[in-house]
Design goal:
- It comes from Paenibacillus phytorum.
- This is NAD-dependent malic enzyme.
- Keywords: Oxidoreductase.
- Helix 7 (about 160-175) crosses helix 15 (about 395-405), helix 10 packs across helix 16 (about 415-425) and helix 15 crosses helix 17 (about 445-460).
- This protein has 17 helices and 14 strands.
- The radius of gyration is 25 Å and the shape is globular.
- By secondary structure, it is of the alpha/beta class.
- Bound molecules: 1,4-dihydronicotinamide adenine dinucleotide, pyruvic acid and magnesium ion (MG).
- Pyruvic acid binds near residues 152, 212 and 383.
Length: about 475
């Protein structure tokens, strides 16, 4: 069983009660007294003097669930048959499946979907390769590719352990934007092998979403694939995160009444996400941006073995500040965490300027628990769905790929990304904006719709759209 992070947990307890020895109400009292909330009860079996029930219990902390199960074991007349973790149950056998669009009911169907008639379709594509977009899944399918080297903030846990995240991304693609996405975890962390494999896979796909590939390899992998493939290649941890971060920051700055040009921004974790977020912030006009990693602030007077850090230090930290996060954060208006859980302390936030913006985006455990700084922060956001203000690339990747597929974009360029940020930020109306609502929910259907419109317009404007969706043909989207 995984060690708990923070946030709610939920289990299903299967219990057998001897009804002459114990009342069901006593059991419920024990659960609630130990911090559990009963959210469902199912009767599984009953006999003359016994009953088996499944009780779904939630609690805010794992320790409370442990207290609940411990107390039940001590209750006379109750046998705890087993405890299941609902999250694990949901993952049994994986989270997605492939389904045909039409049934094969007779020989005629068989010959059309497969041989001999399929041959005519193959030859139509052989004669004109673009027909692949019309006649295969390429039109609507994205590969979600990882090597398992930087999975969430869990680190290099390898391709097998990365699969649940990639399956989750595929579900989100489908549910939020009707994009068919296929999770692919490669059993290699060699840059050249990854590039070659993805190039060889590309014919089936209309886009490649790179995911959770550690820096600095992710930069070369993406750059080379972008050069060598004619479909969009998008490293979600870099660009998806940057798009959403910028959207959130636009609105958070409005809440605290500060301007992006004057803000001192400290960003911790100069990896894939940290570098891309820094780039978008520099492009947006941030002047004082300081990157901090394990060795402290990145500064141009130092030399780093990571080539990206040398490049980064040249472009940031104008006052050449040196020192630890604790030192650098003094007077900062914005903290952005893209590192790992627990890096930021309350004393650090206390050193920031008044009404600080604190975006603690490490997953699954943020750099600081929001409850610890609720009273002193101007705006707090995390990458998680169980706190207000979820700044997570899930707000970007479904919509940006929906747009790219619909206009058969050859690439996803800077203009398309900025259009996506503006679209996301615009979903929160001025009268709705407040410290607990700077970014729309992932379930807000306006998000994908507005991203699609803005991004297709940007793709057409910048000449990377190979197809003009109908509603854009007569001079603009509806
Ligand atoms: N909310 C969101 O949408 C997203 C969140 N993330 C999160 O951001 C974090 C980084 O992701 P990637 O950039 O893809 O990984 P990465 O492995 O490319 O970069 C992580 C960087 O953080 C640094 N770091 C780790 N622990 C640190 C510490 N204690 N102090 C200072 N620096 C530290 C590492 O040295 C590395 O440079 C992860 O927790 C990930 O889950 C990443 C992408 C999207
Ligand atoms: C959200 C995401 O992509 C990550 O944490 O890696
Ligand atoms: Mg990721």
């Amino acid at each position: 069983m995984l060690k708990d992070t923070i946030g709610g947990k939920s289990i299903i307890l299967r219990v057998e009660l001897q009804t002459e020895a114990v009342h069901f109400g006593q059991l419920i009292t024990v659960i609630t007294e130990n911090g559990g909330d009963v959210i469902a009860i199912d009767v599984i079996q009953t006999g003359p003097n016994w009953t088996v029930r499944d009780i779904t219990v939630t609690a805010s902390e794992q320790v409370q669930l442990e207290a609940v199960t411990g107390a039940i074991k001590l209750l006379q007349g109750v046998k705890l048959v087993h405890v299941s973790d609902r999250t694990f149950l949901l993952h049994l056998g994986g989270k997605i499946e492939m389904k045909p669009k039409v049934p094969i009911q007779n020989r005629d169907d068989l010959s059309r979907v497969y041989t001999p008639d399929v041959a005519r379709v193959c030859m139509a594509i052989h004669e004109k390769q673009e027909n692949a977009y019309k006649l295969t899944i390429k039109r609507n399918t994205v590969a979600v590719v990882s090597d398992g080297s930087a999975v969430l903030g869990l680190g290099n846990i390898g391709p097998y352990a990365a699969m649940p995240v990639m399956e989750g991304k595929a579900m989100l693609f489908k549910q939020l934007a009707d994009v068919d996405a296929f999770p692919i975890c490669l059993d290699t962390q060699n840059t050249e092998e990854i590039i070659t494999t993805i190039k060889n896979l590309a014919p089936a796909f209309g886009g490649i979403n790179l995911e959770d590939i550690s820096s600095p390899r992710c930069f070369e992998i993406e750059e080379r694939l972008r050069e060598e493939l004619d479909i969009p290649v998008f490293h979600d941890d870099q660009h998806g995160t940057a798009v959403v971060l910028y959207a959130g920051l636009i609105n958070a700055l409005k809440v605290v009444g500060k301007s992006i040009n004057e803000a001192k921004v400290v960003i911790c974790g100069i990896g894939a996400a940290g570098i891309a977020c820094s780039n978008i912030l520099l492009a947006a006009g941030v002047k004082e941006l300081i990157g901090v990693d394990r060795e402290g602030a990145l500064v141009s007077s130092s030399s780093y073995s990571n080539p990206m850090w040398n490049w980064y230090a040249e472009r940031t930290n104008p006052n050449r500040l040196t020192g630890s996060l604790h030192e650098i954060i003094e007077g900062a208006d914005v903290f952005i965490g893209l590192s790992s859980g627990g890096v930021l302390k309350r004393v650090d936030v206390e050193r920031m300027s008044p009404h600080p913006i604190v975006f603690v985006m490490a997953n699954p455990t943020p750099e600081i628990h929001p409850d610890e700084i609720e009273d002193i922060a101007g705006v707090i956001a995390t990458g998680r769905s169980d706190f207000p203000n979820q700044i997570n690339n899930v707000l970007c990747f479904p919509g940006i790929f929906r747009a790219a597929l619909d206009c058969q974009a050859t690439t996803i360029n800077e203009e398309m990304k900025l259009a996506a940020s503006a679209a996301i930020a615009s979903v929160v109306a001025p009268q709705e904006l407040n410290k607990l609502y700077i970014i729309p929910s992932v379930f807000n259907q306006e998000v994908v719709r507005r991203i699609r419109t803005g991004v297709i317009e940007a793709a057409i404007r910048t000449g990377v759209a190979r197809r003009m969706p109908r509603e854009f043909r007569s001079g603009g989207a509806i």
